[in-house]
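Key result, reporting period 2: structure in, sequence out.
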């Protein structure tokens, strides 16, 4: 019994809940409300602002809204100022800048929280619809959420999480159902949005390629004439959809040059080996261990399930490889594994009663698990209180419009964490009216752009594809104090340096006579070069 059959067996007629079912939210609705509230509230909103790149996204959007033109040259740094820049997330930048102008950082956090909450709520809903029971779905979703904590930031990549889930579902449901195959033509439209929102659109084409490979193999191995013709039509349709999606991906401000740029960026071995988020996961962390648990469950599910579809196996292999190759891929990999493994694991649990290789006690336990999970699923899928998430979003908007306060309490107060970012040091820079460029670590560059542009520019930030290998090699020499570390500062006539307190370069500059400490706190140290020496 496949996932589609399991879906059909769910009774959808009269419900003993009657009209009360329209008052109660489903588990997916509750997950949306809980996640959105937690990430928007004071407990986790600093987590979403834990990455500084949102700063230059906002300022770039501001520039585009003001100029009514797409940014094509770098406006933020003195080192690359005026050089061609692929602002490939331009549409996100415009949207997030508009939200920021309306609601400030509170609105930025609310928007990101809504997207993330919608992604995980939709994943649970689709996992249930695909045949998984409620207990299995909830367990896998919890692990995927844990694995995603490593990259839980207010950045455009969260939109790629949502697009990946939708994209995969459209591909997968069309494989066995001719009626649903028409929905494949939604993919070119999604591509048109995705390519202008985030570079993660590449994942969509990888998934499309996997399903084309699966369809081609199934067509080649089929011997029945009628089935052979159906599979040939399926393969042809996937090819046409892929071609249409590729053409749609060219509808961006940079045309085919964007694809070349993304390829060169992702194929640069040096960049992939030196950018933290592209490195392989360190499995000592909690998020990484959640992903390991997902992989172990995947192995068990594949071992006990009956012949998963080829497309499912290919998606599992892709999700596993990408998650192990780079920590940046952990969220997408975890979500894909949840969607694929949930129905397989549920099917294996439901069939365990006939497996006499298992002990009687274990078979009874699994039988009770499956019965309870299935009943909970049937009840959950009948609940229609989907208005509650909308009410939660409207309440969040209302709170943000009045500055995050309500009933004499500060509900939302989104700010960059002063322990992670040089908040007080930048206040000093503003008070001293320093207008010269400031050298700081790339992980602070976006924050400086957010706070100081256009008063002051940066030497480097985390737009690594803009700066390129050679520039970043020189930059790392300085940060890591390797031989020739003074070259970057001297050749570029750096006069102001802002560094993390206690860092190696900060300690070295304190011992160098030509550098003076202007300001110091527990987070940052601001240096000025003595021009008389």
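The corresponding designed sequence is given below.
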């Amino acid at each position: 019994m496949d996932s589609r059959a399991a879906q059909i067996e769910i009774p959808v007629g009269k419900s003993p809940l009657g009209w009360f079912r329209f008052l109660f939210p489903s588990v997916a609705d509750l997950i949306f409300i809980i996640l959105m509230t937690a990430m928007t509230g004071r407990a986790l909103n600093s987590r979403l602002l834990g990455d500084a790149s949102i700063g230059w996204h906002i300022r770039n959007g501001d520039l585009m809204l003001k100029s009514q033109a797409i940014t094509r040259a770098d406006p933020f740094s003195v080192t690359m100022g005026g050089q061609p820049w692929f602002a490939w997330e331009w549409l996100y930048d415009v949207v997030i800048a508009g939200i920021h102008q309306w609601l400030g950082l509170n609105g930025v956090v609310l928007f990101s929280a809504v997207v993330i909450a919608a992604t995980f709520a939709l994943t649970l809903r689709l996992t249930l619809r695909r045949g998984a029971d409620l207990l299995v779905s909830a367990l896998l979703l919890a692990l995927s959420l844990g694995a995603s904590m490593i990259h839980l930031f207010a950045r455009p990549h969260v939109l790629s999480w949502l697009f990946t889930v939708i994209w995969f579902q459209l591909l997968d449901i069309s494989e066995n159902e001719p009626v649903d195959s028409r929905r494949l033509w939604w993919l070119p439209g999604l591509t048109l949005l995705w390519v202008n929102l985030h570079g993660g659109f590449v994942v969509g084409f990888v998934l499309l390629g996997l399903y084309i490979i699966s369809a081609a193999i199934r067509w080649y191995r089929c011997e029945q004439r009628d089935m052979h013709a159906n599979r040939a039509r399926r393969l042809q349709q996937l090819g046409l959809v892929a071609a249409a999606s590729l053409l749609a991906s060219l509808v961006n401000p940079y045309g085919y040059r964007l694809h070349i740029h993304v390829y060169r960026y992702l194929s640069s071995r040096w960049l992939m080996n030196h950018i933290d988020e592209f490195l392989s996961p360190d499995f000592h962390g909690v998020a990484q261990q959640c992903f390991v648990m997902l992989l172990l469950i995947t192995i068990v599910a594949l071992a006990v399930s009956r012949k998963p579809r080829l497309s499912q196996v290919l998606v599992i292999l892709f999700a596993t490889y990408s998650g192990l190759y780079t920590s940046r891929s952990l969220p997408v990999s975890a979500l894909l594994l949840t969607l694929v493994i949930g129905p397989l694991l549920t099917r294996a649990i439901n069939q365990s009663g006939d497996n006499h290789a298992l002990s009687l006690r274990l078979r009874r336990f699994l039988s009770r698990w499956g019965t309870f999970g299935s009943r909970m699923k049937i009840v959950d899928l009948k609940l229609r209180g989907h208005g509650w998430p909308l009410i939660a979003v409207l309440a969040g908007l209302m709170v943000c419009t009045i500055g995050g306060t309500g009933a004499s309490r500060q509900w939302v107060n989104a700010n960059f964490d002063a322990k992670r970012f040089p908040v007080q040091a930048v206040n000093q820079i503003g008070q001293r009216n320093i207008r010269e460029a400031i050298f700081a670590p790339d992980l602070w560059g976006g924050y400086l752009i957010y706070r100081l542009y256009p008063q002051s520019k940066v030497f480097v930030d985390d737009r690594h594809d803009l700066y390129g290998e050679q520039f970043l090699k020189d930059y790392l020499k300085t940060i890591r104090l390797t031989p020739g570390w003074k070259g970057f500062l001297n050749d570029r006539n750096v006069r102001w340096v802002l560094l993390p307190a206690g860092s190696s370069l900060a300690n070295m500059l304190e011992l160098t006579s030509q550098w003076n400490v202007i300001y110091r706190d527990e987070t940052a140290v601001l240096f000025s070069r003595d021009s008389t020496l």
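The chain has a mean pLDDT of 89. The radius of gyration is 26 Å. This case is discussed further under Risks and Mitigation.
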